[in-house]
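Reopening this ticket.

The earlier resolution said the output was attached, but the attachment link was broken on my side. Pasting everything inline this time so it's all in one place.
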Amino acid sequence: MSATAEGKTRFERRKEATRGRIVHAANALFLADGYVETSMEDIARAADVAIRTIYLHFDSKAAILLAYFDEWLDDFVDALVARPAAEPIDESVARALEFLVQNGWDGTPFGEMPGPHPTVEFIGTGSPEIAGRIMHGWGRAQDALTAHYAASGAYPAGSFVPRARAAAVFASWVATLLVFRDGFGGAPLDAQATGNSVGEAIIREMNSGRL
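Inline output:
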């Protein structure tokens, strides 16, 4: 088989496409029907693949959920790193989130969500394995963002600002999940609110000096 310009063969491209179809079909089911209620057979039908094909890529339902989260987080970090290092952090986050929606990541309003996403359900509850893996991912993301800001030359050597910027991004993500958890629990939440709009509002408050 001949390789592409990126060095990937046709087989590798097909394998990646199948993996992506499984991950995104599963995520749609998790949101519509709930994580616990979704079976591997459901995912196979939605992705139009054989059940054995799923197990060639993933050893569990949790692994599929985590693959979706890892892809989102990688794209989010890449979008943040593409912003100017000295840009106000709320602006960087807002532009990065806009970029993600423009590139196909979910921006469904709260009022149109049939139920909470598993990451919302599992914050503080659910599988410790999943929550732990998500925290590990964010630890790596914060290290990558801190290193990017520190290497930019925008801050003096030894400054805590690079770490603080990265920590603010993580804090706004956690707060957004908690706002949606509260909303699904009955707390008032605008039906048009999205994860992005809530995240932007939270980090704007964090950066305003009013907290």
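Reporter confirms the inline version is readable. Residues 2 and 204 are 49 Å apart (CA to CA). The two ends are 58 Å apart (CA to CA).
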